[in-house]
TrEMBL record:
Pfam families: YkuD (PF03734)
Gene3D superfamilies the record matches: L,D-transpeptidase catalytic domain-like
Catalytic residues in the record: H171, C187
Residue span, L,D-TPase catalytic domain: 75-211
GO MF term set: glycosyltransferase activity; peptidoglycan L,D-transpeptidase activity
UniProt KW Ion transport keyword: no
Organism: Pseudaminobacter soli (ex Zhang et al. 2022)
Similarity field: Belongs to the YkuD family.
GO biological process: cell wall organization; peptidoglycan-protein cross-linking; regulation of cell shape
Species lineage: Bacteria, Pseudomonadati, Pseudomonadota, Alphaproteobacteria, Hyphomicrobiales
This protein's name: L,D-transpeptidase
Signal peptide: 1-20
Length: 211
């Protein structure tokens, strides 16, 4: 019996090592499963979503299911801007965790909002204040056409609060190297393959907490 126990423990330790399990960030305790193989190229609505060189993205930012204890109900989206994770709350103390990019210094935000709308292959229109800061964006004042290089990527979730449109979005990005960094103008960006996954999970009206 002792030999069987030791053999079982050795097997479990080996499996944990091979899976690369790691506890990252508050409230999360290791991935149950990762989706590292889900970042290949795909065709969606006539557009080609490029493959992500996922080996170049730190492993903690790969989409994965983790233990996540929260009093928020399943379907809630929680954005942790410090460790740069977005959690989609699942039942039974679990969540899907995504790596994100967040607002650079001076453009950070936090609070509670709702998903007011969802768009596939959205048009991006830079706000006037952004065009003033970056005059080269004036050519998109009428809207940047949808496509893989669009600033909102393959999908966008539009966030509203009691005051109306916050101006902030959860959206995709072709700039995979920006995940895990603070370099946006305030919106929360995900890999295109990840925002497509979140889009299918999150419903209009979903609560979004950014902290």
């Amino acid at each position: 019996m002792q030999l069987k126990t030791l053999t079982l423990l050795a097997s479990l330790m080996a499996a944990t090592t091979l899976s690369g399990c790691m506890s990252i960030g508050p409230l999360s305790i290791g991935p149950f499963s990762t989706y590292t193989g889900d970042y290949n190229s795909r065709v969606d609505a006539g557009y080609t979503v490029p493959a992500i060189p996922i080996s170049k993205v730190p492993r903690q930012f790969h989409r994965q299911i983790v233990r996540y204890e929260t009093s928020e109900k399943p379907g809630t989206i929680i954005v942790e801007t410090g460790p740069k994770f977005l959690y989609f709350v699942l039942p039974e103390g679990q969540a899907v965790r995504y790596g994100i990019g967040v607002g650079r210094e001076g453009f950070e935000w936090n609070g509670t909002a709702r998903v007011a709308a969802k768009r596939e292959w959205p048009v991006w229109t830079p706000p006037a204040e952004m065009i003033r800061r970056q005059p080269q964006l004036a050519k998109y004042a009428g809207g940047m056409p949808p496509g893989p290089q669009n600033a909102l990527g393959a999908r966008a979730l539009y966030l509203h609060n009691k005051g109306g449109d916050t101006g902030y979005r959860l959206h995709g990005t072709p700039e995979w190297w920006s995940i895990g960094k603070a370099m946006s103008s305030g919106c929360v960006r995900l890999l295109n393959q990840d925002i497509m996954d979140l889009y299918e999970r999150a419903g209009v009206g979903a609560k979004v907490i950014v902290r």
